[in-house]
Every structure is written in C-alpha cells, then in structure tokens.
Predict the structure.
Amino acid sequence: MINLTIDGRAIQAEPGKTILEVARENGIFIPYLCYHPALKPIGSCRICVVEVKPGPPRPLPACATYVAEGQEVVTASPRLTAIRQELMKLVLINHALECPICDKGGECELQELTHALGVPEVDLTAIPATSPPDYESLLVERHTDRCVTCGRCVRLCRDHVGAMAINFMQRGYFTELGSGLLPLDCEFCGSCIDICPVGALINKQFKYRARAWEVTKTEMVCPFCGGGCTYELHLKDGEIMRVYNGETALLCGRGRFGWPVLSSPERLRTPLVRVNGELKEATWEEALTAAAGGLKAVLEEAGPGALYGVGSPRATNEANYLFQKFFRAGLGTNNLDNPARLHYVKALSALGQVFGWPEVKEADGPHPKPPAYTSPFTVKEDTKGSGFTFVLGFLEELPRADAALILGADLTPELPPLGWGVNAARQKDDFKLVVANPRGTKFDRWATVSLRYKPGAERLVVAGLMKALLTAKPDLAPAVPAQGFEEFKESLKKFSLKEYASRAGVEVADLEAAAAILAQAQAPAILFGTELLSQDKGDMNALALADLFLLVGKPGTPGSALYPVADKANTRGVCELGVLPDRLPGLLPLDSPAAPAFWGDKKVAQQPGPTLLEVLDLLEQDAPEAPRALWALGGDLLRWLPNRSRTEKLLGKVKFMVVQDAFRTDTAKLADVVLPVAIHAEQEGSFISSTGRLGVLKAALTADGVLPDWQIICRLASALGVPMSYRNPAQIFAEFARQIPLYAGLAPKKAVGKTGIPAELKGTFVPFDLDISLPGRRPFTLIIGKVLQHSGSYTTHEPCGTLVVTPEGAVSLNPEDAAQLELKAGDKARVISSHGEVEAKVALDPLLPAGVAFLPEHFAQPAAQMLTLNSNLVRVSIQKA
Amino acid sequence: MITCSCAATPPAQLTPAQWEKIDAIIAKYKDVPGNLMPVLQEVQEAIGYLPPEVQDRLAEGLNIPGSHIFGVMSFYSMYTWRPKGKYVIRFCESPPCHVLGAENLLQMAQEELGIGLNQTTPDGLFTLETSACLGVCEVAPAMQINEVVHGHLTRERFRQIIADYRAGMAPDYTTLTCTTYEISRYKQPPTDLVLLKNVGKIDPENIDDYLAAGGWQALKKAVTTMTPEQVVEEVKTSGIRGRGGAGFPAGLKWSFTRPLTVTPKYIICNADEGEPGTIKDRYIMEGDPQKILEGMAIAGYAVGASQGYIYVRGEYYLSKHRLAKAIEQARARGFLGKNLFGTDFSFDIEVRSGFGCYICGEETALIESIEGKRGYPRMKPPFPGVSGLWGKPTIVNNVETLASVPAIIEKGGAWYKSLGTPDTTGTKIYQIIGHVATPQIVEVPAGITLRELIDTYGGGMRPGSTFKFCQTGGASAGIVTAAALDTPLDFGSLAQVGGALGSGTMLVADQSVCVVDFVRAVAKFFAHESCGQCTPCREGTPLILRTVNRICRGQGTLEDLALLERLGAAMIDASFCPLGQTAPAPFLSAYKNFRQEFEDHITKKVCAAGVCRLG
C-alpha cells in the first residue's frame, strides 16, 4: 500500500491507481469531464487538475497521475478553482446552451459540473460551431454542437466496441465528432449514448418520453443473449422508457434497443387451444385443462415414456429446473432435452471427454437461509473442484489474456460481450490475436495472423496448429497432467503440416505463425461459437479445441481459458440445470451417488432418454419408443432444427403437443395447446450466462394475460398429478442450489467456477475425426449463422429497435460471385439445396470469399433450415429469382 | 457533419488506370505497420485528391474504418478530398513571413489570379491556399507551388512566376540543388564546422562524396571498436543537449533506453521542422543526408534498436527525396541493412512524412502520426524512451542532434564538450531572420550573443531598420528587447531573460513591426496548429486570436488585456502539452515589454507602427 495525503488527509492506496480513483474511493470530490471509469484516461479536459508535491510546477490531471509514496495532493485551492472555472467557461462557450430542448436535462454532467464549480458567468465569447444536428441516424441522434470533445464515445467505440464508427474530424477548434465521408459504419449498440456526459448523443427511443428524474430504476440481467450483461431498466408509469448502463455503458443493440419486443402486437396474450383443427383463444383454466387432459390421455395410454420434454434456453433456471423435475421425479423418465443439443451441448460433451465433467467436493453447507439467488454452500479450505467448468473462461478475465484464438466465430454477433472482452484485451501492446474463419470478420482488422480456411475445415486448422506447435517444439508438454498424449500425437501423423494446410486452404507459414503465438502466450484464450458447433461434427470441432487448450492453455492464469459461446440468455443454465437426457442438475451423471433426491426417496431413472435428434429418428422410424406427446418450453423447433420439411413431417406424427411460447411460432401453430409466457422484465428468475455469470431478472412489469414459465409448469404438473407449489422463483432457486455443490459461493453477478474453488485439473487427449467432406456438388457453400442485430428470433418482432437496422434476412455473397450470377444487392435470389429452397434478398459482402455464401438464422423468412440436412453448412446453388 | 460539404462535390470519376495505381499502392503498403499516412500521401500524389470513393477503396484495402481514414486526413492540412488545380499555391502566413508583408502579398495574389482564397482559377491551373509555415524563413515572404518554393515575393516576381508556370516552365524540384540558397552564399565563421562541414561541398546524392569526406567511419568505429554502453557514455560526455528545442541531454535520454530488455526498439529522427523561423535541419537533409543516417545508425547501435524512421515535414519535398536516395545508396553499400560491418548489428531506416501539422513535431504526436493516427500528443509518463512507437522503447532526436553524433564518436565527447558553453556544449546552427540585411543560417560554437549574430552573420539590421525586438527560439517563445542583445544564445542564458534558445532561430523585428499585430500573427499560427485534444488549448488559442484581432481592429478594451492574461495563465497551467503551455507566452512577453503599445491601440486607437487599421 502507498501512503499519501489528499488535502491533508492521510490516505492509503493501492499502487497503480490514479489520484482520481483514490479520491473517488475516499469520497473526495475532484471534478472531471473526459474521464470515465470504464475508459483509459486521456487527461484531455484538464478539469481534474490537482496540485501534486513532489511534482512539476504545473498542476497535473488527477485522472492520469498515479499515486506515489509520500505524495501530497491538493484538490482545491484558489489556483485550481481559477483554472477549473476558466476551463468550464471555455467548454461552455462552445456548447449549444439549448438545455430546455436537450433530452439530457437532469442528468447532464456539464450542468452538474457548472453547478458544482459555481461558474458565475461566462464572460467569453466564441464563434459557435455550425454543424447541424444529425437526426437521420436510426437510433442515435447526434448533436455535434453540444459535444464537449471529451472523446469518451470515440474511445469507447474504438477500444471496446471495436467499431470505430465515430471519430474526431478536423483539428483544433474545429474538431468535431463525425463518421467521415463514407456511409456510417455503425453497430448501433448505442453505447456512445450512455457514455456521453452531455446531450451530444441522444437515444431516440427515450427522447422526450421521460425526464431523467422521473424514472424508477430496476437493475437486472439482459435477457437477449448469453452475454449476461447487467443493465438498468428505466420505467415510468409501469412502462419501459429505456435501457441504460451507467457503469460500463456497453450494451449491444439487441440489449439496448430490443426491449420493445415486449409490446409487440405479435405477442400471444391469451392461451390457444386446438378445437376442430383450429387454434382458438381460451382462458387459462380451459387451456390448462385441455393440456392436462391431452397429456394425461397419452400417458395413460402409452406410459410415462410417451411424453418428451424440450426445455428452453430462453427460460429461467427455475423454470427449466422444474421442467426436468417434472420428468424425473414425476414421470420417472429422462425423456427430455433442449435445443442447445444442436450446438452448445456438443461443446459440453467434448469438454467432458477431455477435462472430465465438473464436480465439487467438500463444499461447506448447505447453510440455512442463504440470501435470495445465493448458493447455500460456501467454499472452505479443503473444497476441491475438478472438471471442465474450471477451464471455462470468465468474461471479466478475458481482457487479461495475452493472446487469443478466435476460431470459426464472428465473435461480436455470436456474443457481443466476448467481442468487447477481446477488444479490451487488445488494448495491451503485447496482445496477439489469431483470427481463423472461412469468412472475413471485424476482428481480422486487429489480427496478428488471419487464417482464411475452407468452410468446415476447423479441425484441420486445429490439427495443423498442433502439428506446427509440436514440430517447432517436440518436447512441448501440457500445463496440466494429461493422459493419452503419445497416442494423440500419433493421430496427428495422419497428414503432414503441408497437407493440413493445403487441405484446410491456409498457408503453412500462417499456421506456423499462429502456432508460435499460442506457444509463446502466457495466458492464451480460445474462443469459439455456435457457428462451428452447429456443424454435424460440431462435437469434433469442440474436441479439437479442447485438445488444443490442453496442449497450450494455462489454466489458472486469468484470461487463459476456453470460451465456448452459449448463445441464448440461458443456454448454459438449461444445460446445467439438467434439461438433458443424460445429465442431472449440476451436470451430474444419472448414476451419481450425489444425485438429487427430487421427490422424497424416489430414485432417478438410470436409463438416459433419447436426445432431441434421436427423437426425430424414432419418429421417422415409427419406433414404439417414439414419443406420442411433446411438451416444449419455448423454442421454435421448426425454426432451429435442421431439415425443416422433415421436422415438420415428423412433428406431425406427435399426437399431442403443448407449447409454451411468447409468440405464435411455426411450431406453436402445430401445437394442440399454446400457453403464452412472460418474457423479459415480466418475470423473475435467474440465468447463467455463457461465461457462468448468475444474472437475475426482476419482475418490473406487469404481465398482461401471460404467465411466467415456472407458474405454468407448476399448474400443469399439478394437474397431471405431480403436485408442485412454490411461492416464487427464489424458492425454486433455493431448492436446486441445495443440490448443486458446484455452485458453492455463487450469488448474483458472480460466476460459476469463479467463486474461489481451488481446481484440480487433469485431462485426456482425445483424437478427433479429420474428415471434413461436405456432401453434394452444388457450387456454393452456405454458412447459416448469426448477425449482429439479432438474437435468435426474439428481436425479429416489430417494433424491436433492432429491426430498424436489420429488418430482414438476406443471403450474402462475395461481390464477384454475385456479378457472375448477375445479381445485384437487393435482387431476389433462389437458394437451392438438395433438401429445400428459399428465396432471399441478395446482399454483397466483400468479406466473404468466393464460393461461400451466408444466410442469417434468425428470420421466419427466408427459413434457413429449409436448406439444411444435419449441419449449418450446406452446399447450395444460387440463381436469380 | 462534414458530409454536408462533401455532398456538394460531384462523385469522382476515376479512370481504370487510376484505380490500378491506387490498388498498387495499397498492395505495396498492405503489411507495412502504420501504413495509412504513406498510402494517403502516395494516392493523393497519384490522383490529386482523396474523394470518398477513394477513401472507401482504402478502407476496404487496408481494412481501416472509414471514420479513421477521414479523421486522420482531416487532421493534416495538406490532405484534400476535393479536386484542386494543377498547381497548388501555398502562401506562407507564419510570423516571419507576416512581418515581411505576407498579408498584403496574399491580397495581391488574389488580385493577380482573380480568385479568392481556397479557390481555383477557371482554367484549373492554380489553387490559392495559405500555409501556417513553410519553413523557408530566410527567403520570406514566400510561397510554395506544389513542391517548389519561391521566396522574396513581390508583385512583379509573383506575376513572373505565374507566367512561367502558365508557359509550362514549372521547375522540377528534384533537379534543384537546394530549396532556397546554397550555403556558400552565407558568411561562415572561421572555426571548424561539425554539422554543415559537407553541406554545399559534396554531392548529396552521391554516397561516394560522403565517403570521401570520411563518412560512415564513425559508425564503423562505434560498431567495431566500442560497446553500445561506451557509445552512450561518449554521447553523455559530449554534453550535447537536444537541438529540437527542449534541450534535454541526448546521452542521458539514450542511457534510459539502453538497459531496457524490451524489443524491438526504435530510433526516430525528428525532421518535422515546423517551428516558425526554423530552417536549419533542411540544410543538413538536403546537403548532407548520409550524416543523419549515420547518426541514427550509431544511436541504434547505442540503444539496441534496429529500425529507424525519419519523420520529415510534408512541405520538405527535396529533403524527402534526398533522404530516400541516401538510404537507397547506404543500403546498397552495406551501411544500412543486416549485419553491418560483419557484426550482428542490423539497422535500417524508413522515411515517413508529415502532411501539414505543427504538433507532429512534438515527439509523442509524431509517434502517433507514424502509427497512422491523428497527431495527438500522448500523456507522459511513460516517455517514449520507455514506451514509444507501438509501445516499444523509442529514441526521438532532432536532425541536428543526430547529425552531431558521428563527429562526437569520431573525435570524442570531450572534444565536443570543449566547444560552446558549459550550458550548451558543441556547435549550434543559428538562424537569423527577419529585418536583418542577410537572413541566413550559421554554425558556430554555442553561446555567441544575439548582437554578434545580427551584426556578423545577419549583416546587421536592414538599411533604415532599427532593432525593436527579437522573438527567440521560435513562435512559442517569448520576445526580448534590445536589453537582451548581449545575452549569450544558450539554453540557460536565454531562459533567464525571458526568451528561449529553442531551435536557435532569432526573428528580428524592426520599428515597422507593430507588436500587437505581431502577436496576432503568432496567435493565428497557434490557433491553426492546436491539435484540439485538450480544452485549454483547443478553445484558448482561437480565443487569444479573436481577442487580439479585436484589439488590432481598434475594438479592444482594457478588459480584453486582463482576459488575455487570465486565459494565458490558465493555459500555461492546464494545457496538455508544450503547445498550449507556451502559446500564451508571445502575448505575455510582448505585453510585458510593450504594454503601452497595447494600451494605445485600445485607449488612443493609435498604432505607432501604422500597421493596424484601427477602424
């Protein structure tokens, strides 16, 4: 600790902190404008200058001057007051003083500062800036004449969002905020709004709807993706006025502008029951009776195994837990799964093979009456953790990685906070980045090495990297004890490095350079997403990366971890809470001696259920064990399962189907009973983010006609003779948390695996399949994946702000390919695979290599899964429509 | 938004050949770190301007955001995104040109060409612009047409030059021996020269001449007979203080970087000679470029760097040309490149160019510029010696400093120290400009007096001129009166009398100069060159200009003077970098020395020099 005095007060401070940070921590007021806790200080507004002894004769900016032993800091003196008042005047002469019409009124830092510094009058004049405001931009209004040139937005956009959509233009007095002469290339995340100290950047959704002081604030987790961001809902008269992040300002467009989905006219507000072949509106009583009746009939006729459950990565931990409990404790089956089967579950299975499934021993507890959403277990000295949870990364630590490999993921669209994390990491001068992707992505801009491989060649790239690593350093040994290394090295001998490179379509030198980066890294992070996991051999892709991490990873070093994307708000939670045919809550195996006793002394069935994909096969084969009834907790199966026409046909075979959803999805249209659910802030509950963070939803809004999933499950289960009754979701959390020592120390905003549990890691190298052939002879390889503005189909409903930016799905083509097909941007094209066909608008994307096309997965039309067989990669022909 | 002004520009119609050129430039620089500035410069040279269509191509080709490209372009005043005439005339407005009548000449040029400022003649031949400083003060008042400087302007001369250009007689700058005058014209001291020894005597484009004059022997000596530490020690012994203006001991600077284990390290030669009145480095670059390369290589050996950059101000076309040639020849002869003199020391140099930006002479802004960014000064600490170019240890030294190094190694630090004064050792190139009979540069042991400089080398005051004041060291320093004429011109002595040695330039003003009008010209320079990063300088420099303007128009009040003092104090105290910290100094020292003249403008509406039109 460092000893210094501030205004004569003796203060102890951590070394490496700035005077401003230390003053803030100690409640000492130092005014500032360009400083923001989430940004690197630049010391440009100069308002925070303080007198420092020993030091130069000039006052120093407190935001950028580090504390030192024996320092004497003066934060207030006549000299400093004179400087600050002068500076404030200089700012004010160039700030459009249009406070009455400025939406920042009441929360303007410039107003606060003028008041706090007691600026008596502005006896200076200046030529006012003349740039007109930009009302044209879609979600963010820009008023450059209000800009105080603090550069917060420029720094945030450049260093954290990584878009650099806005920058300073011109120089000196004429410096202004702008986007250059090219069309605005903005991610429409709106983070610049929340970081702007004045009203230069205005949220169009919020403008003139409420004054800053009128809103009530509720902090909750963002439910739009698996990022697990926390934000404030600002409400007035029970309505959301805006979404706000005062802490880091960072949110993505979905999170910030997606909330109007709540009031979408497409929302289901009443239950629907199929009567004479048609879905008709019904009361909750009628609908639940119909659902229970239909399911009961099937169960009575064909036994408990006839009902199959599909959990939801959108539903809370509490709902998903109750859902699996119904099957396990009520019906005594494991006949359930969740849609993450198509991607994230593949990563879990690969990680389980290489690092073992997670387990925590000797956790202290369960203690009675923990606070809400807090584990009743605590970590004690001899608590020990093992398994893959302890090689998974934490968002907060990603910026500390000194190297990162992003494989097969367009990172920000896959999971925005991971993109921000890598951006934060690259602020370090020595950070090295390897970007490997069949298509160009934003991160190529900062890549030390970019590998542009053939679609689907991920495993060859990874094998090639390991080959290069082991060639350069034959005695390379994994950082953790590992088995099977010799056999594994044998398996890599299948091809030479040159062959790996040529088969993957990359240069040997690039593979070597990338391998060298990973070999030298002290804290390498490996990031990958659903785009690579959604391939039919996605599990093998994950296996390859788990092997690679076993070889080069430095588990235990902050930032060095595997970062698989769990894409939806609770993709990780739905899996960890046991909505899997072979895993219980806490990811325990079915035969675990620690298996939770859900229902008195009833034992968990030892026979794993079929997976979601196996269920389709069973239906296709008309197998006796094929389910007759389906209960889907959300998730539009037709939209997400590959080979849509097959899915449609097979779901038609299910006798009785209950769907809980917020929208009348295509799957809901096939159901016999549709139960409308609460979403977003209409319900309480918890999520586990992609990086393990426990986020809590708050029921800040009244639910109009809809019910939260957990209540529906309770009522339907009870009607089916499996009584369930809970006061609130917190009580459900308390029930399952008692059964999951893995969550020892977990509490809101804390992360699973990051609660201080010491981990004992070991691994097993598992060889992976190297065949990357893609069936068919059609000329284009189509990749189906995510786009920046959308999260599943959630954000594709009017009046979501995200639709303003990306209103529809288009097939993207390399401009030269498009020219050969005589297609221009905006033309209609037919995209034809061996399994189906869609019509889509054409977009041109120079980042796509020749022969590769891209189609977003989010939209009802074009329905991407019409084209697929068993993978998000498919060969297609493209023609002018 | 800027977009408004752009919308008025018709879309650029480039030929396929032009697009090919652009793509070739992109390909050439694709993998060069910090490629944006050289790419923009070469493309502008090839196409004439950088319209949005071209920016788009560069954004895609270099994978740089469009907002960054325009952010950088619009920061440097020599880039243009609108088409211009075949010949761009840049009229120098710097204080040295101003005191010699630049303002009237600019008016004259507009009349002669029949166009206003920033307009192009209907035949598309000439675009008339101003420049904050061209760095050719010895021939003030001056202008530059494309790469070529024309000085000592009068209406007749201007007419003749324009007629020549119209007749197709535009000179090719690469065929000129130098930008202004050959050094042989200047009166030189009897002492041995260190820096200018070869200038004007050898062919700067022929390395053999340099070798015949003993060139590259100092590097050989250093690399083959000395340890890097010994080289650092020798430079320390010499006592040489940085010649860029701040006067930091060069050996000390090197000694901080030498022991760092971080690699790579860089040597940057600061050739962004932008301080008004400063013209010295140009003579070395144009007349003896190999010497700078040798000095850089020695510095590289001393601190453990293997890459050097010379950052030359954009207007110095001939310097860039000579340096590029010199590098080529030095590489061919094995003085630059890998394993020099058979050792494991390797060193190479790249020329980078500024493009109209004074602040890039500040070392950290210069580094940002090489990295391809807006030239915003960085916060110090860390100093570049620890974390500079791309975050790596970087030595930034002025041309004159580095050009002194070969002689220090050859003849020893003690010899060097024996020259000059204890405060400022060695020889120094002084520049004597303004109202003297023969403006020129001269290299003498540091410490001659201002009087000696004026009388012996400036040829005395012009006929009919009497000394009124001298702005010492450059635009950012204070002015001194006749009382300081016998002060030795070294760092310490000048600081004591309220001046500064700075770059060693002495701008002498006679009785025809109105001090208020002079302060206005200096204020205009700083308002133009403030980078805009920090509040006091961004808002303060134009406010000084507006206020002084008011006084010059006879609309000033005594409160204005109080305001300027108050504002000046805040700027000195709170500005981010030396630009803002020193920008009020010229006013403050002028006001201190010529208070009455300021007050007369306000209360009596009298301009004693008859310069200001007091309404």
About this structure: The longest strand of chain B covers residues 427-434. Chain B touches chain A through 58 residues (CB under 8 Å).
